[in-house]
Amino acid sequence: MHSPWVKFCGRERNDRQAKEMCLTVKEARLETGEFMAGAALIEPAGTEQKMLRVTLPLGMQLMPGVRMFIDSDEPRTGPYVICLPNGCMADFDVTAEFIAKLKQGQNLQLQGINAPGQVASYLLPLGDFAKAFEGPPTDPAQYEQDLKRQRDERLRNLPK
Predict the structure, then answer these.
(1) Containing domain of residue 87, as a range?
(2) CA atoms within 13 A of residue 116's CA, in its CB half-sphere
């Protein structure tokens, strides 16, 4: 299951000097809700610099890192920068040209090497990326309510 691409904007609550930042985010999860992979385009206010943070599940081999590419483009490889309980993350600096490809592409593919040494691939469809990226931010509270409602609905529809 994939979440839609969603845009959130705000600033770090605990840092009064933090700049406004927008994240355009998508996740892939199992039917159970378990996180599988995700991507977040991070845009700090007042700068042209943008970064794509990709997250793969725990259990990936840290070397050789993550491969990321759009459709049949040449893959980019980056090292993991941190692992947290929800997964391991790698950051890629991206250009306006790359963002244009995200807007026009079909799929963002993320790859890592799992514990047994096999390539684990995760596709994040890009069909609704441009609309989210160019549109207004989503209200986080409303988004959480919508997710909870969808989860509850899926649980009700599970075979008994």
Answers:
(1) 6-136
(2) 3
Structure tokens at 129: 């990326």
- Contact predicate 11/19, CB 8 Å: yes
CATH assignment of the domain containing 44: 2.60.40.1880
Residue with tokens 């490889």: 77
Is there a domain that residue 83 lies in? Answer: yes
Span 6-17, pLDDT tens digits? 999 988 777 777
Is there a domain that residue 146 lies in? no
**Structural domain contains residue 10:** yes
CA distances from 135 to 10, 37, 128 (A): 15, 23, 11
Domain total in the chain: 1
Residue 150: left (phi > 0), alpha (psi -120 to 50), or beta?
A: alpha
Strand order in the sheet with 76-78: 76-78, 66-70, 107-113, 119-125
Give per-residue pLDDT as tens, 121-152: 999 999 999 999 999 998 888 878 877 787 77
36 Cα distance to chain centroid: 10
11, part of any domain: yes
The mean pLDDT values, 10 residues at a time, for the chain of 160 residues are 91 75 93 89 89 95 95 95 94 95 97 95 96 92 80 73
